Amino acid sequence: MKFSSFALAAVAIAASSVNAFSAPKFNGARVAQHTFLKATAVDADTKTALQTAANEARGLAMDSIAAAHSGHMGLPLGAAEIGASLYGSQMQYNAADPTWINRDRFILSAG
Fold first, then answer.
1. What distances in angstroms separate CA 103 from CA 31, 38, 71, 89, one per listed residue?
2. What are the entry keywords (predicted)?
3. For residue 7, what are the contacts with CB-CB under 8 A and spacing of at least 6?
4. Dist CA 64 CA 90 (whole Å)
């Protein structure tokens, strides 16, 4: 039940951010646009970009599982949209400085 509530919240958050990939920058860091759970129309470009990111994540997950000859595909394939939505519109991070102190951290645990 926790996962389905989280998934619905992530989808609602992704749907509420219209300009997901043009967040304001502060000293080179990407600052998240904080939105609350409200249903709004999703811009077609944003929806396409998030879907492409989710599909790329799925492909990378399948490639790494195949290369390792071990692993479970369920979680990486099922949670790709959650990761794309969070990293695409909600989380604060700076790709140029991965040790940035104000970055958001995301921990996904299956158990």
1. 9, 25, 29, 14
2. Metal-binding, Signal, Thiamine pyrophosphate, Transferase
3. 82
4. 26
Q: What is the pLDDT of residue 26?
A: 57
Cβ atoms of residues 35 and 105 within 8 Å: no
Q: Is 12 in contact with 5 (CB distance < 8 Å)?
A: no
Separation of alpha carbons 83 and 77, rounded Å = 11
109: confidence class by pLDDT, cuts 50, 70, 90: confident
Q: What is the pLDDT of residues 70-86, one digit of tens each?
A: 988 888 899 999 989 88
Neighbours of 81 (CB within 10 A): 20
Burial 10-26 (b: 16+ CB within 10 A, else e): bebbbbbbeebeebeee
Reply yes or no on whether the pLDDT at 105 is more than 80: yes
In the block, tokens 């992530």 appear at: 10
Instruction: Measure CA 16 to chain center.
Output: 14
